[in-house]
Amino acid sequence: MNTLIAIAGLGIICLIAEIFNLRKVIVPITIIGLLAVLGLHYTDYSVLGLETTAEQTKGLYNSMMVNNGYSKAFTSLFILLTIFLIALTPHFQREHKSKLSDFVAIKLFLLTGAIAMVSFGNLAMFFLGIEVLSIALYVLAASNPKDTNSNEAGMKYFLMGAFASGILLFGITLVYGATGSFNCDAIYTAVRGGEVPSWFFIGIVMLSIGLLFKIAAAPFHFWAPDVYQGSPALSTATMSTLAKVAAMAAFFKLMHDLNYKVPGTYTTIIMTAAILSMTIGNIMALKQDSVKRMLAFSGISHAGFMLMVFFNPPAMSGVLFYYAAAYALAGIAAFAVLLYVAEDKKGESIYNFNGLGKTNPMMAAILTCALLSMAGIPIFSGFFAKFFLFTEVLKTGQVAIVIVAVINSIISVGYYFKLILAMYNKEATTETSKVPAMYSIVAIIAILLNIAMGLYPDFVLGLLK
Amino acid sequence: MENILEQIGIDNYIYLSTLLFCVGAFGVLYRRNAIVMFMSIEIMLNAVNLLLVAFSTYHQDAAGQVFVFFSMAVAAAEVAVGLAILVAVYRNIKNIDIDNLKKLKG
């Protein structure tokens, strides 16, 4: 809870710093502040001990917030991702210096929303968290008002997001109507205790639809490619790493908290959504020219992979965390390179990456590592994420979906290698400029963390156990 | 005075709210004027608010009514952002018809 208050305060400090003309120090102060919050968060964690008992996980503020291993691990991941995204901001917005504080502050408020989404103990907090995250993202998507593409992306995202929020809210209301409480524990007890009216299940399905919209899983994925393509590149990076991981974590926590014993038909819904997301995402990604659009479809297919954790929620939280961290870190590294290329070449089509292997070997190597991690090639953490996920799903006896997932991993290698081949096998057409220092620092740290996670998977998995 | 909710029955409140919700949803799907779409989204959210208040009375629990305040505040913030985006769109294309926004495809 201290974490949440501290981050919201940091966001307000950013806005005040702008008034006092302290624009130059905003980003360093924010990054130091976030590192301090991460430290504070980690000491909280160590004091409590890795094994949290029932007393330690008790809710704060009338159980609006619940701190347990799950929320703490995901909060650390979100803070880390936000540090990366804020570090990329100053150079990306160098032509709009006066807006820097707004961009940093919005990202911090987005982070508070994300944290509320993984540590809620009450559906009110869940709803507020998801809305704070979404509203910040609408602003970020439309943050280039002179560009019609950004306008279109913002408008589409807003309409789809508000529509999904309406469905989500209706779901929350029906769950409340069926159980008489917004508190997750009370709802769980009520569901366990006996008969619930049939609205409860309608409510759960509507909640799932709203959240499938937010994580951009098929068949609710139509907004994602357009919004990712139209938004400014850094906003796309935020959406495809932080926002997607946060929505997925919230979805998992919600289903985990409300009903372990989902009726069998619910598994069918999730299985359909997972298979559709993986297949549609991968097959559509094969024919994309725009790299941002390709990464959007790749994100849809990863959402499909992550949905597989719903087959056995109690055992899967560690696997979901590992997968989410691997995907998000690879995404940050890939987007740091994409930002550089998009600025340098004034476009983000695949041919803009031609010859990057010769003109800028380091950035090309980082992008290659990030893409190989997303594809699931060993030594990168993406491979182990998929390995653990498939092992756990196989234990539940769902062989069919694992086969589909493996086939999809193979398809995904196709489009990731299309980009890698463009970088190494084709000749560069134009001169290149120097890589901005911050982009390369962020890219290197993100990819090193990704590889480190691949080398020491036990440490990350142990965070939640 | 007898409880009016018992006379009408909670089911009828659910049907009414669902109907209003569907009116809003079809408005979003069929109307092409951005302002009308925003209004339709508001109808969806207000249908939910009505249902929340009905359930709150049904359970004799104030939490539902408090939630309505949250949802109203969030809806206001959301529409403020939406209208800001709409102003940006209007400045660029001098029009608020959603059908003009279809440059992004692939």
From TrEMBL, chain A:
Top-level EC class: translocase
Q: Does the keyword Disulfide bond apply?
A: no
State the Pfam families in the record.
Proton_antipo_M
Task: Provide the transmembrane region boundaries.
Answer: 6-22, 29-50, 70-88, 100-120, 157-179, 199-220, 264-283, 295-314, 320-342, 363-385, 397-417, 437-456
**Cellular location of this protein?**
Cell membrane; Endomembrane system; Membrane
Q: Which reaction does it catalyse?
A: a quinone + NADH + 5 H(+)(in) = a quinol + NAD(+) + 4 H(+)(out)
Known EC number: 7.1.1.-
Which InterPro entries does this UniProt record tie to the protein? NADH-Q_OxRdtase_suN/2 (IPR010096), ND/Mrp_TM (IPR001750)
Keywords from the UniProt entry: Cell membrane, Membrane, NAD, Quinone, Translocase, Transmembrane, Transmembrane helix, Transport
For membrane topology, the record states: Multi-pass membrane protein
* UniProt KW Metal-binding keyword: no
Q: Which residues form the NADH:quinone oxidoreductase/Mrp antiporter transmembrane domain?
A: 122-412
Superkingdom of this protein's organism: Bacteria
Q: How does it assemble?
A: NDH-1 is composed of 14 different subunits. Subunits NuoA, H, J, K, L, M, N constitute the membrane sector of the complex.
Q: What PANTHER family does this protein map onto?
A: NADH DEHYDROGENASE
What is the stated purpose of this protein?
NDH-1 shuttles electrons from NADH, via FMN and iron-sulfur (Fe-S) centers, to quinones in the respiratory chain. The immediate electron acceptor for the enzyme in this species is believed to be a menaquinone. Couples the redox reaction to proton translocation (for every two electrons transferred, four hydrogen ions are translocated across the cytoplasmic membrane), and thus conserves the redox energy in a proton gradient.
Family, per the entry? Belongs to the complex I subunit 2 family.
What name appears for this protein in its UniProt entry?
NADH-quinone oxidoreductase subunit N
Report the source organism: Flavobacterium suaedae
Upper lineage is: Bacteria, Pseudomonadati, Bacteroidota, Flavobacteriia, Flavobacteriales
Query: Which gene is annotated as encoding this protein in its UniProt record?
Result: nuoN
Automatic annotation (TrEMBL), chain B:
The reaction(s) this protein catalyses = a quinone + NADH + 5 H(+)(in) = a quinol + NAD(+) + 4 H(+)(out)
Instruction: Please give the superkingdom of this protein's source.
Output: Bacteria
Q: Where are the transmembrane segments?
A: 12-30, 35-55, 67-90
Q: Does the keyword Flavoprotein apply?
A: no
Keywords of the record, alphabetical order, are: Cell membrane, Membrane, NAD, Quinone, Translocase, Transmembrane, Transmembrane helix, Transport
Q: Name one Pfam family in it.
A: Oxidored_q2
Q: What is its EC number?
A: 7.1.1.-
Write down the membrane topology: Multi-pass membrane protein
Where, per UniProt, does this protein localize? Cell membrane; Membrane
User: Main site of residence?
Assistant: membrane
State if Protein biosynthesis is listed as a keyword: no
Q: Which family does it belong to?
A: Belongs to the complex I subunit 4L family.
Describe the task this protein carries out: NDH-1 shuttles electrons from NADH, via FMN and iron-sulfur (Fe-S) centers, to quinones in the respiratory chain. The immediate electron acceptor for the enzyme in this species is believed to be a menaquinone. Couples the redox reaction to proton translocation (for every two electrons transferred, four hydrogen ions are translocated across the cytoplasmic membrane), and thus conserves the redox energy in a proton gradient.
What is the protein's quaternary organization? NDH-1 is composed of 14 different subunits. Subunits NuoA, H, J, K, L, M, N constitute the membrane sector of the complex.
* NCBIfam families for this protein: PRK05715.1-2, PRK05715.1-3, PRK05715.1-5
| Protein name, as recorded | NADH-quinone oxidoreductase subunit K
Can you name the source organism?
Flavobacterium suaedae
What taxonomic lineage is listed for the species of origin?
Bacteria, Pseudomonadati, Bacteroidota, Flavobacteriia, Flavobacteriales
